[in-house]
Amino acid sequence: AMTTLTRQWFQEGVQQGIQQGIQQGIQQGQHEATYKLALKLLSNRFGALNESAQARIRNLSVESLDALIEDYFGFNSVDDLAIWLAKHELLVV
Q: Which of 1, 14, 15, 75 could serve as 80's disulfide partner, Cβ 3.0–4.6 Å?
């Protein structure tokens, strides 16, 4: 039989695990939504991006994806995107 203290620790551990899982799920959902928005904007403007460019964009942090969306309006070509990515890829998730 578990002691009351052991049971309490177990329940706290389970609750903490659930909370961390929920938070991680929210972050992953936010990243995926922001990635899809960035990809849609870029694809609509420059045509379908190759898989390499898509992967590079997917690997950006949410903060970098937000910055990409903001800076997107100043891009005149896919080359501008490539230059931007080269400067920002250090900020990977």
A: 75
Say which DSSP state 47 is in: -
Condensed to tens digits (0 to 9), the pLDDT of residues 36-89 reads: 999 999 999 999 999 999 999 999 988 999 999 999 999 999 999 999 999 887
Confirm if 49 and 42 have CB atoms less than 8 A apart. yes
What does the alpha-carbon distance between residue 58 and residue 79 come to, in Å, rounded to a whole number?
Answer: 18
Q: C-alpha distances in angstroms, 28 versus 6, 8, 44, 62?
A: 33, 30, 24, 9
| pLDDT higher than threshold 60 for residue 92 | no
Phi, psi of 78 (to 5 degrees): -60, -30
- Tokens linked to 28: 């992953």
Rg (CA), the chain: 20
C-alpha to C-alpha distance for 93 and 78, rounded to whole angstroms: 23
What does the alpha-carbon distance between residue 20 and residue 15 come to, in Å, rounded to a whole number? 9
